[in-house]
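Our collaborator T.R. sent over the components below with a one-line note: 'Predict the complex.' Nothing else. No constraints on interfaces, no templates requested, no preferences about which chain binds where. So this is a plain run: every listed entity goes in together, and whatever single assembly comes back becomes the starting point for the next discussion.
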Amino acid sequence: MSEDVYIIGAGIHPFGRTDGRSGREQGVYAVREALADAGLDWADIDCAYGGSAAAGNADIMVNELGLTSLPFTNVANGCATGGSALASAQMAISSGMYDLALATGFDKHPRGSFNASPADYGLPEWYGQTGMMLTTQFFALKIQRYMQLHGISRETLGRVSVKAFKNGTKTPHAWRRSEIDLETIMNAPMINDPLTKYMFCSPAEGGVALILASEKKMKELGAHGVKVAQISVKTRPPDSFEVFQAGVSIKDGGKPTVLASQAAFEGAGIGPEDIEVAQLQDTESGAEIMHMAENGFCADGDQEKWLLEGMSDLTGKLPVNTDGGCLACGEPIGASGLRQVYENVEQLRGRGGERQVPGKDGTGPKTAYSHVYGAPGLSAVAILER
Amino acid sequence: MPALAPIDPDLWSDEAQPHLMGGRLPSGEVVFPMPQGEAAKDVEPYKLSRTGTLWSWTSQGFLPKEPYEGLGNGEGEGPPDFEPFLLGYIELPGEVIVESVIVDAKLEDLTLGMEMEFCIVPFNQHKTTFAYRPTPTKGA
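Returned assembly:
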């Protein structure tokens, strides 16, 4: 039987833009914060997993952190880099092989939308040359169809952004920290219809580190950790609709998010109705809408009511993206998925400050859910409990 | 002015009424684009339908980064002169859903399931590409 795994330390370098500090240096900053949080020294860590999409290899961090000879595995898994690092660290401990593991992710991207090379994704050159290889288009195309089929209004997309920026004002690690009203969001320049400028997140910078421990080690240290109930990472099934597809199957295929979510709930032995706070991939506001349903938190179309009535606000039935999500924090690819887990750790430990959610019984949440989605069609879900 | 060349010589058939080229797998499933290299083994080139229905759509409001080579942005194409454009997915009945530039339409005219037809259009000063456009209504 595998052992339970706990997160006993969490650190973050504020997201946004930090001139003069490399992506990896932001990662090192986060690791030191996590070590301090757990009351540990770098030399105590048995093994490490980490990576970035555009800021170099993580294992070089030992130059700054110390040459302790620990095994340090670089993770390069696109948007799931953080999630895969966390899953690897969890497995290292649950296998019984190690007692203390680090999962870290960091990044630093140039301004503007991501540009991708067709060859890297096994696509012909004309796909990029004719201007169809943009991630922003995929999200617009997916939500446009979803809105037509399930009666979601443009205002609902705007309300997701209003909520994100409002939560961002209460989050020290957020990048966008001023509220933006619905009218400004709706009237902002259109990027890809129906999504305006303020409905998209931006590539950014930041770093996150989490320290995982076995139950035995946690007790030995006298630490109070948050239990990793289940982590599930799934790549796309046949006939799914994903980013960067010149051709899509006419069959109504499965979705990696649905698969990862179902596997995570099954493994944790709980259901969507038991979750008290959730961080869902919100690359743009339509993604949060669709991911609410794909992760099982509401039926298709119910988001209209949820957003209108504030059911996903900090004090709502299920608070979603309590730190402002990608919309307010930006998206440093390697760090973004771990930011969600960091936020959940903070919420479960009652350290959410102004953005602390009350939980069902008013004593703070006992369960937390995070979900990351990325190219070329993969999802990672982590369920935490205290 | 010299004739414009297709952006990819194998992307559509060379005939008076050209078809976008997909592939048919041994299972009978139709895919787009036609796979290249070893992935093309056992895949039969397949002429896709010239008509279909609109599955989803959006606008491209900003200049894509490289490798975009639209008007004014490719090599030897002169100063940047970006024009926003429309694109979407067209469902070809019984075949596959293809991503395509959409021409001869305004954003507000597009509706789910509307009839679309295949066409070849100039893309920049040197090349043509494929597109779909709303099927003109008879008598209009």
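Summary for T.R.: Chain B touches chain A through 41 residues (CB under 8 Å).
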